[in-house]
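pls design
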């Protein structure tokens, strides 16, 4: 990729952030609309889980394929294809006649979304080559998540109350079309020096692993154990297959050598934990505010602002801290704040009081605002630029897998606790184990942030990069000769 002027780099960053905005906004807007969709489509708790998890599950399954494909055939080309498919999927979702069709169209959306975020991050990584400038750009990227969290509940609540839940998918159309035209005009094409071959076996194993695990968790409360147990066995077999098969390939879908880097491995687990907490937090909060407190979608959106605003404010601050002091401090702040928020709900029933509910939302917003930048920066900084797309895709996969598992686990716990009782009577006690799951996730962020950002961990990252780089250089020289 040729060196771009500062203004052009900022424009590329803005275009990439537009793709993140529609993908992130889609999740936050949808959460506010869940109760309305539940009534209109006659969906149970598992149906609501699938409207979210069908999207995040397909994303998690295809992100690494999209990242490696973009490195191979061109990042701009894949990015534009993703914008087209995502926009078409949004139109289909707005026209869905029933729950099954909505879930299917959400999967179409996700196919397009899988080509957006990891590819956009790869474009940013190759555009901003200076480490400090890249950290600041990633901070802006993280702030867009805060914008989506702040605007999503409000915009979604307003649309649901005034027009209906189908209108929440319309907002993707103008943003998607604008991003497509701007990408065509201003984003330069880039690709890895040497094309990576597809890995269909690895891709199938990833889909089987994520799909069987998620299905088993979501359906466990309403399905006999003998029907769920085989799915758990299938998930374990798929995981074993990945661990045995992938190291034997010269160009695997998942390069397991990445995980020899302690910061990279830590960032992966932190991403899963943080986004599992986010998925569970949004799911429980939305159902509580509307089904238990009886608030409208717009009122519920307003109640989410104490979480969304700190996320928006803390994300760029986290990016600056990562650029100047490294990832440890932001991760410690994130882990402490998210853990404390979870404890307020799990041990002190924070939702039963306006003061503690507000405090719990603020703390979670602060924690989530600080966690995104160090995850992304750590995932891509220690890796060779030629594999930036794959490294960014692993980080994005971890986020989506975490959110998928968070909704699946917390929703299953809630469904088991509520049973045949009404939400108003049983929600607080039924949700308590789910809040404890969020406490565990926050504590994992805190501990891993401390352990994987030290001098020893950085040493493993440097050794891993040295092992990866000579192979790429040797392959590149061989193909050019």
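designed seq:
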């Amino acid at each position: 990729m040729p060196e771009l002027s500062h203004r052009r780099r900022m424009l590329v960053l803005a275009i990439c952030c537009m793709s993140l905005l529609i993908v992130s906004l889609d999740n936050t807007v949808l959460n506010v609309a869940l109760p309305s969709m539940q009534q209109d489509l006659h969906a149970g708790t598992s149906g609501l889980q699938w409207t979210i998890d069908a999207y995040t599950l397909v994303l998690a399954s295809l992100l690494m394929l999209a990242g490696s494909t973009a490195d191979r055939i061109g990042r701009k080309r894949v990015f534009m294809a993703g914008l087209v498919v995502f926009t078409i999927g949004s139109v289909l979702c707005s026209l869905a006649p029933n729950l099954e069709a909505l879930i299917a169209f959400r999967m179409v959306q996700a196919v397009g979304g899988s080509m957006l975020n990891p590819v956009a991050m790869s474009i940013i990584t190759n555009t901003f080559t200076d480490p400090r400038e890249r950290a600041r750009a990633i901070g802006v990227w993280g702030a867009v998540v805060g914008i989506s969290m702040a605007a999503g509940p409000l915009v979604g609540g307003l649309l649901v109350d005034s027009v209906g839940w189908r209108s929440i998918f319309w907002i993707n159309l103008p943003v998607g079309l604008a991003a497509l035209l701007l990408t065509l005009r201003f984003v330069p094409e880039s690709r890895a020096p040497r094309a990576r071959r597809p890995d269909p076996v690895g891709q199938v194993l990833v889909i089987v692993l994520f799909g069987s695990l998620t299905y088993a968790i979501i359906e466990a409360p309403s399905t006999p154990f003998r029907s769920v147990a085989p799915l758990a066995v299938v998930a374990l077999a798929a995981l074993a297959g990945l661990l045995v098969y992938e190291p034997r390939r010269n160009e695997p879908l998942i390069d397991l050598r990445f995980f020899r880097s302690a910061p990279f491995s830590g960032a992966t687990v932190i991403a899963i934990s943080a986004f599992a907490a986010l998925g569970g937090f949004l799911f429980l909060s939305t159902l509580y505010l509307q089904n238990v407190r009886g608030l409208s979608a717009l009122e519920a959106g307003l109640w989410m602002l104490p979480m969304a605003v700190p996320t928006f404010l803390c994300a760029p601050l986290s990016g600056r801290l990562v650029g100047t002091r490294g990832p440890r401090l932001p991760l410690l702040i994130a882990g402490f704040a998210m853990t404390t928020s979870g404890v307020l709900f799990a041990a002190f029933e924070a939702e039963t009081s306006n003061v503690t509910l507000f405090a719990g939302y603020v703390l979670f917003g602060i924690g989530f605002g600080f966690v995104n930048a160090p995850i992304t920066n750590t995932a891509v900084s220690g890796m060779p630029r030629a594999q930036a797309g794959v490294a960014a895709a692993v980080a994005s996969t971890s986020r989506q897998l975490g959110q998928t598992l968070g909704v699946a686990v917390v929703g299953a716990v809630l469904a088991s606790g509520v049973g045949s009782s009404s939400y108003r009577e049983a929600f607080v006690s039924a949700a308590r184990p789910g809040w404890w799951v969020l406490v565990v996730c926050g504590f994992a962020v805190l501990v891993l942030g401390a352990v994987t950002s030290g001098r020893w961990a950085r040493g493993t990252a440097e050794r891993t990069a040295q092992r990866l780089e000579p192979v790429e250089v040797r392959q590149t020289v061989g193909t050019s000769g």
